[in-house]
Amino acid sequence: MVERFQVVPAAYLFLRRGDEVLLQLRRDTGYFDEYWAAGAAGHVEHNESVFDAARREAAEELGISVASADLVPLTAMHRTHDGHQLIDERVDFFFECRVWGGEPVLQETKAADLRWFPLDALPTPVVPHELFVLERMLAGSVPPVVSFGF
Question: What is the structure's pLDDT at 85?
């Protein structure tokens, strides 16, 4: 049997309302606690497409429904952390969405707040790899594939 290197996939969803983006304040996760982050995000589960993961996370964390057709791909990010451990190797799929059903309400137990922010007036701190994408959204150009932390 051949062992292969594997990365951990995740889906991130930035809800947009005009020039604003919806962010949640992380708390009690053990990972970037007290940092602002995408309104909905999470790992892609076994036998789940990245689109289905983004839709599931939107329902679980925000109580809204999102159609796959309304998920606009922003970028795929291959990233790591300073320690470069196997668990740190990730591939993240970022989506933007401007149409959804329901009103976003904080459902996530590991978040302390949920707010809309103008892209040009983001709170601090923001999870660094997510800030990387948000800054490029503000600049008007997000490359389709990026790396972070290498």
Answer: 63
Q: Are 125 and 33 in contact (CB under 8 A)?
A: no
Distance CA 94, CA 118 (A): 18
Instruction: Inform me whether the pLDDT recorded for 4 exceeds 70.
Output: yes
Burial 46-64 (b: 16+ CB within 10 A, else e): eeeebbebbbbbbbebbeb
Among the listed residues 32, 12, 33, 30, the one whose alpha carbon sits nearest the alpha carbon of residue 21: 12
The helix (H) or strand (E) run that includes residue 129 is helix 128-139
Return phi, psi of residue 83, to 5°.
-75, -20
Q: Which residues pair with 77 in a beta bridge?
A: 92, 146
**Measured distance CA(40)–CA(54) in Å, rounded:** 8
| Residue 50 binned pLDDT confidence (cut-offs 50, 70, 90) | very high
Residues 22 and 110: their CA atoms lie apart, in Å, by: 16
β-bridge mates for residue 48, sequence order: none
